[in-house]
Amino acid sequence: MIEDILRQGLRVVFCGINPGLSSAHKGVHFANANNRFWKIIHLAGFTAHQLQPEEEQRLLETGCGITMLVGDAAYHRSLRVVAGGIPAGWRAVDGQDRNVPAAGAGDFRQASLLCQAFRVKNAPWGRQEMRIGATQLWVLPNPSGLNRMSGDALLAAYRALSDALPPPSLTTR
C-alpha cells in the first residue's frame, strides 16, 4: 500500500487517480521510469532538484504533497465513490486552505461525473471555478508516459500552477 504524502499547511497537494502497477509494486508514488511527474515538477519549479520516487517524503520540504482518488492499483481508469460522495483522496484535502491539482484531466472528469461535489464535464486545464471549502482545484495533464502530450505542453500546464503559488515559506519545512 502506498501512503499519502500529506501534512497540515501544504501549499499544493497533487492528486492522481490511483497508483500504477510499478508504484504499487515499489510502494512509492509515480515510480514508473516512463512517468514524467518528478521531472516535470522539478522543471516547473516545485523542487530545487529532481527527486527520485524513493525520495518522495522530501516533497513535504517544498510545501507539496501527494494523494490519490483511489488507493488501489487494480482500479485502472475507474473510481469507487466512498461514503459521503467524495473519494477518499479528496476527503483527505477537504477544507484545507491549499491548491489541489488533479493529475490528469480524464481522471478529474471521471471523478466529477461520479462525485456529486464536482458535477463538471470537460473541465479545462488550469484553475477551476469550484472549490472544496477553501481548497482551490486545478486540472493538470497526466504526467504518465502513456500521455502523448509533448513535454513542453505538459511543463507549461504545471508551470502555470507553480507560478500561481506563493513560494514555499520556512513554515512549510
Automatic annotation (TrEMBL):
SUPFAM superfamilies, A to Z: Uracil-DNA glycosylase-like
EC number: 3.2.2.28
Gene that specifies this protein: mug
PANTHER family per record: G/T AND G/U MISMATCH-SPECIFIC DNA GLYCOSYLASE (PTHR12159), G_T MISMATCH-SPECIFIC THYMINE DNA GLYCOSYLASE (PTHR12159:SF9)
Pfam families hit by this protein: UDG (PF03167)
Gene Ontology MF term list: hydrolase activity, acting on glycosyl bonds
Protein name per UniProt: G/U mismatch-specific DNA glycosylase
CDD domains found in the cross-reference section: UDG-F2_TDG_MUG
Location of the Uracil-DNA glycosylase-like domain: 9-152
Record's keyword terms, sorted: DNA damage, DNA repair, Glycosidase, Hydrolase
